[in-house]
Amino acid sequence: MSNKMAEEYYGQKESVRLNKYISESGYCSRREADRLIEAGQVRIDGKTAVCGEKVFPGQRVTIGRKVIGQKDEMVVLAVNKPVGIICTEEKRIKNNIIRFLNYPVRVTYVGRLDKDSQGLLLMTNNGDIINKMMRAGNYHEKEYYVTVNKEVTSAFLEAMSAGVHIVDKEKNMDVVTRPCTVSKIGKYKFRIVLTQGLNRQIRRMCDALGYRVTELTRVRIMNIELGNLKPGEYRKLTDSELDELYELIRDSRNVGEEVSYEGCRKTGAGYEKGR
């Protein structure tokens, strides 16, 4: 893995010679490191290393079964969350996403999908990514395909795109959603691109207009697409995806947030919390 996001995570800005990397870890001297490399006992990302090779930020160096280095590998995963899996870290909840994924490195989710929804979920052990992507004031795009219980009309599309007034007295919620991009892709199906993440936002918007969501799939978060991942499958983001994501979030900033509504962040445009 060699990308700008990993460089920041590891605090390593440049590549270093393998023997220096090993010696600075405290494992052995450079001379002994050279001997180990020549003997074929050193691997980089699972491949046998050669003398003079360099280690780039985020790469995994091993000697035998021992991992050389100080930080865990930076992990950013694209996951296709199935219906029924809950985005929570509560261990007492049986179908929580952490237990379902069972990834060997501790990761958590970036923005939620509700239990009845499916599709793209990003999971990572890089807290900086989470903080920057969850700031609503930066208008990060999330795209969904939605099926409803009756025909999608032009009036419905117009109302959804203009912004919908959502009221829920029990949740102390009274907000007009941001204008968004909506288009019809089937008799009962539409595509919607949001730049905010109110709790169960799309379902609430549809309810307010007399529609009921029967299926909801998130297919994109910013530059990351669900692609051909099947429910329950995951993959690591590529270096090119991470570099593009880095550029998109590098200037993200807080915009006068206050905590309210079940831990959601309230901004001028509403409450920020995953679907």
Key phrases:
disordered C terminus, 4-stranded antiparallel β-sheet, 275 residues, 9-stranded mixed β-sheet, 30% strand, alpha+beta, Structural Genomics Hypothetical 15.5 Kd Protein In mrcA-pckA Intergenic Region, Chain A, single chain, Pseudouridine synthase, 23% helix, 8 helices, 20 strands
Describe the 3D structure:
There is one protein chain. The chain is an alpha+beta fold. The protein folds into 2 domains: 4-68, Roll (Structural Genomics Hypothetical 15.5 Kd Protein In mrcA-pckA Intergenic Region, Chain A), CATH 3.10.290; 76-272, 2-Layer Sandwich (Pseudouridine synthase), CATH 3.30.2350. Helix content is 23%, strand content 30%. It has 8 helices and 20 strands. The strands form 5 sheets. Strands 7, 8, 9, 10, 13, 14, 15, 16 and 17 form a 9-stranded mixed sheet that branches. It has a 4-stranded antiparallel sheet with strand order 3-2-5-6. The chain has a 3-stranded antiparallel sheet with strand order 18-19-20, with no helix packed on it. A hairpin with a 4-residue loop joins strand 11 (165-168) and strand 12. Helix 2 crosses helix 3 (30-38). The chain is elongated. The relative contact order is 0.16. Residues 254-274 have low confidence and may be disordered.
